[in-house]
Structure formats: C-alpha cells, structure tokens
Amino acid sequence: MKSKYMQPNKILILDDDETVCQSLRYLFVKQGWEAQWLTNPLNAVAFIENNPIDLILLDLNFRVGTDGKEGLGILKEIKKHFKEIPVILFTAWGSMQLAIDGMKLGAVDFLTKPWNNEHLVATITTQLQLKSKSEQKDIVHSSLDAIIGASEVVQSVKDWIVKVAPTDATVLITGESGTGKELVAQAIHDLSHRKNHPFVKVNLGAIPEGLFESELFGHKKGAFTSAVSDREGRFKLAEKGTLFLDEIGDLALSSQVKLLRVLQEKTFEPLGGSKPVQTDVRVISATHKSLPDMVIHQTFREDLFYRVNLLHIHLPSLHERKEDIPLLVNYFVMQLNNNTKQQVRVEEHALEWLSKQLYPGNIRQLKNCVERTVLLSAKKSLGIKDFKPHLEAKLTGVAKFPKVGEVTLDEMEIQLIKNALEFYSGNITDAARALGITRSSLYRRIEKHKIQYES
Ligand SMILES: Nc1ncnc2c1ncn2[C@@H]1O[C@H](COP(=O)(O)OP(=O)(O)OP(=O)(O)O)[C@@H](O)[C@H]1O
C-alpha cells in the first residue's frame, strides 16, 4: 500500500516506552512503511507540521498510573490540527470506556496492549487503504469538477472520460484551440490507475524535426556533438504514467514513423544507446487538425492514426455551447476571488452580453478576458463596459512603419510577435496564422527571443 505520491506510508508512533517504539518500528519497516516515534507526545503537533504523516498510533497512557485523560487531550489537539490523519489508539488496560471516549473524539480504531502483530498490521493497512480511497475521491472530483459546463455535450464528454479513464487504450482528443483538450487529458490521467505516476506533456508542434528522437527517447552522452551528458526522454519521464502528445497533427512524417514504432513495439532506443528500453506508458494525443483529412492528403500516416485513435473525444467550440458561458465566467471570477480574497461579481446583463460574443480562441480567450477585466477594472460589480475593452484588443503600434535606422529587424520581429500573441490571447495557432508563419516557426522565434506570453 503506497500513498498518493508513491512514497512509503509514514507512521508516527506516540508512546513513552522506547522499547515498544523500537519493536513497532521494526514491524512497520518490514511492511514497507516508514516509522518514526516520539516519546514525548506534547511535541506531536509541531512534529507533524514539519513531517507529513499518513497515520498515527497513539498510546493513551503515557505514564504508568494515569487514567488516560492526558492521552485524550493529545488526541484532541491532533484532531484539531490534522483532521484527515487517522489515529489508532493503544491502551494498556483495554479499558473500553477510554477507547469509546477516544473514538468519540475522532480516533478511527483502538487496540490493546500486548498486541498481536498480525492484527495490528491488518488494522493499520485497512486505515491506510481507506485514507488513500478518500484522497482518490478528492482527485476524481477535483479533475472532473474542473471541467465546467452544464451543456449536454459537456456532460457526455465527462461521462465518456469516466468510461475511458480506467482502460489503457490510446485516446485522441480533438477540438479547436482553447477548448480544454489538455484539461480533459489530465482528467483521464487522474481517473486512471496511472494517477500516482507522472503526467508528462509534450508539445509536438514545438519540437524541431531533428530533435524529435532526442526529446522523446533521450540520448546517451556523445550521441551527437552537443550531447555532453545522458538525457532522459519524455517516454522515460512518463514511465508507468501518461504521455500527452499535444498537437500530434504537427508531427513531421519522418517522426511519425518513429512514434509508430514505439507504440507498436512498446520499446524505444535512446540516441546512441545500444539496446532497446521497454516502456509502459499510456499515450493520449490531441490536435485541432482533422487527422482523417491529413490521412487523405498523405500528410499523416494512416497506421499511426489508428494507433493513436483507439478512443476518441471531440470537444465542441465555445460557440456550440454558448449556454455554458455564464457558468464559465462565474467560475473564473470565483477562482480569482478565492485567490485575491475579493468579492467581485458579474452583472446579469454582462453575462448575457458575454454569451453573445464570438470567441475564436474559445475558453482560453474567455478566461483571459475575464481575468484581465477583473484585475484591471478593480471594481466589485462588473458590467458590459468593463468587459468590452478586453475583448476588443487592438494590434497597436503596427500600422505606423518605423524609419530606417529606428529599429532593428529583430526588434521589429519581437514587437510583431508580442502584438499578435496579445491580440489572440496567447493562442499560438491564430497568432502564427496572422503572422503568416507556421506554428513551429513561431515557437522557434518565441524561444529565440525569449518572449513571455500568457497562454
Ligand atoms: N470546461 C472548462 N472549464 C474550465 N476551464 C476550462 C475548460 N476548458 C478549458 N478551460 C481552460 O481554458 C484554458 C485552455 O484550455 P486547454 O489548454 O486545456 O485547451 P487546449 O484545447 O488544450 O488548447 P490548445 O489546443 O491551444 O493547446 C485553460 O486555462 C483551461 O483551464
């Protein structure tokens, strides 16, 4: 039994008898648990604050002859500060009343001394399992709950996520830019048995063709001139977890065949490596392009298409689910309110107005618009006038052409890219289209000039 982050479970023993602590620790370590003890339980709260603990074993009788009241006081303190940590009680006399009082104060179980090892281990295992189940429930809720939308189409996407998550099949998520493809990929991962392992995202549109293998499969020192040390690729980083291949439609044909080979054979070879490495990774891909059209035009391999598209989820554009706009706006405002401890609200007619606007950048554009409006207007109640300027961003300073010698070509390029990114709320596809270059070419320039932008 491992905790949420696949670290050993950590058990804290609170008992004033050091020999008891030592023998319990020996028993726990054999189970693969980490055990620490404190012989002075008054230090427990401070200790737990600095050392995350999964379960506490608390002796109710600290000094021989006490009636256990001191132990109950400590239990109360622990529960006050760390409600979610299960506490199992130990009592020397097996006094039922003391155990009952402890259970009333929030202990999850109790045992008597001398204890039976098997029974003790079984009791702790059960509590650790229950704790990890409730943590899983939180994750399940938070990742599905993060997908906002009451429209029928969003509800059926959520149902589908729940169905596909437990399988290991590849999933292709399609939809326009900013419709939530990454959010859905993350939810599938969080609801799958791989949730305790990494979720690794790779933007295939941003990786130059020549670096594909090194990025995805890694390389050995000396594999090529600039390979000064070994480097792990994304497949290795995602081992036992999920690899999210964003913009798979942007993958060059020569790289497509390399990706296909890994997906078929479940092995890859790092550049400069001599033997194949086994991989256990679930692949989820996303694209705003039509892969079937690309297959027809022979820009996407048909065999790879079937390999990555065992299950398919299509996300509608915001235009097709306008009824979700008020919900989304209120959700984004609520998130900001939580972060900034404010009480901003959106007026009814503004919600109606926002629902009628066009959002080529979909939810990302709506979110950016709401965030800018809330942060820049500094008002408590937001109306149409407050939102308008943030939806109608202008390409400023582009129309006037500078005189020779006023700016360099690089400075001009940086300014144009910044303007386009701002205008399209960080949407790379639209900004690249407006600038007349490909997405990968835009990524290269952003990297070259170290341009910061909000996506
Ligand atoms: N249904 C939703 N509820 C709440 N927030 C959402 C929803 N869909 C998307 N978002 C938010 O909108 C932004 C864009 O979403 P995301 O990055 O998942 O889109 P995408 O389709 O992967 O975009 P791209 O194709 O450009 O990579 C993110 O901040 C995300 O949290």
From TrEMBL:
PROSITE patterns (UniProt xref): RESPONSE_REGULATORY (PS50110), SIGMA54_INTERACT_1 (PS00675), SIGMA54_INTERACT_2 (PS00676), SIGMA54_INTERACT_3 (PS00688), SIGMA54_INTERACT_4 (PS50045)
UniProt superkingdom: Bacteria
Modified residues (4-aspartylphosphate): 59
Location of the Sigma-54 factor interaction domain: 147-375
Record-annotated Response regulatory domain positions: 10-128
InterPro entries per UniProt: AAA+_ATPase, AAA_lid_NorR, CheY-like_superfamily, Homeodomain-like_sf, HTH_Fis, P-loop_NTPase, Sig_transdc_resp-reg_receiver, Sigma_54_int
GO molecular function: ATP binding; sequence-specific DNA binding
Keyword terms: ATP-binding, DNA-binding, Nucleotide-binding, Phosphoprotein, Transcription, Transcription regulation
GO biological process, one term: regulation of DNA-templated transcription
Gene3D superfamilies: 1.10.8.60, 3.40.50.2300, Homeodomain-like, P-loop containing nucleotide triphosphate hydrolases
SMART domains assigned to the protein according to its UniProt record, in alphabetical order: AAA, REC
Protein name per Swiss-Prot or TrEMBL: Two component, sigma54 specific, transcriptional regulator, Fis family protein
